[in-house]
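Just curious. Invent one:
>
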Amino acid sequence: MSLSVKHLLGIKELNVTDIEQIFQTADKFKQVLQRQIKKVPTLRDITVANIFFENSTRTRLSFELAEKRLGADVVNFSASGSSVSKGETLIDTVNNILAMKVDMVVMRHSASGAPWFLANHIDASIINAGDGINEHPTQALLDAYSMREKIGNLKGKHITILGDIMHSRVALSNIYCLNKLGAKVTVAGPPTLIPKHIESLGVRVEYNIKKALEWCDVANVLRIQLERQHKPLFSTLREYALYYGVNKQMLDSLKKDIVIMHPGPINRGVEINSDVADSKQSIILDQVENGVAIRMAVIYLLSGKREME
């Protein structure tokens, strides 16, 4: 059991067989997570370093839990308070960690392409935990896995990705993954937050949020990433919530029930209201649970282990 790639740098590098294998392996690990003892000693001889040059809560904790559930030794590195602040380069930082005999690196970095750069310079397997505004592959995998769990095979299903498409690595990875699985994708939001020529990726563009929701089976709502916006792209958060936020009244006006998702963190009252985020239509907490199983599957498959104990 292994993937066709040595690293998980992006969804773009995976084929459909890889994605299906990750899903099937996650199914088995999800059963493990339901047991009283939620650990397997599969990777007891593997050391994984979590190297985060950007702030993270859910992704870092999810990876750390996945690694520990597999029995791996875990090393956590945060750029804040490290020698990076003294001018140490990325390569020197990682090589120092690898000198401690680390087998796998999970990395998040604010620079798009950083995991690819690293993969060309070190021998350990690299898992991209988010690079700039480029990709976030494990988030896309857990999103697609959660959709499939809820509505079945994604081929021909209508998925709307709604919000700050321009600055979202989650959006790009989701588009790649859903296209490979045969889903039909629409991106929706303000014109200033949707990249030009995004249709070239095989998606529809819709600026009317209600039409986008009426069309879809699943709506994946993204947060406004103010930290990545270097100039104002809409008037106020209140205006955004009024015209592009998803609320219960809007969902009730649709002619059908749709599934609501959000990769987090949620800006309640901006892109999504609490009565939607906490509703029966929401599978946001399922995404969090599935994130551990998916990351266990990715780590296990990249480790090259042949048996699941």
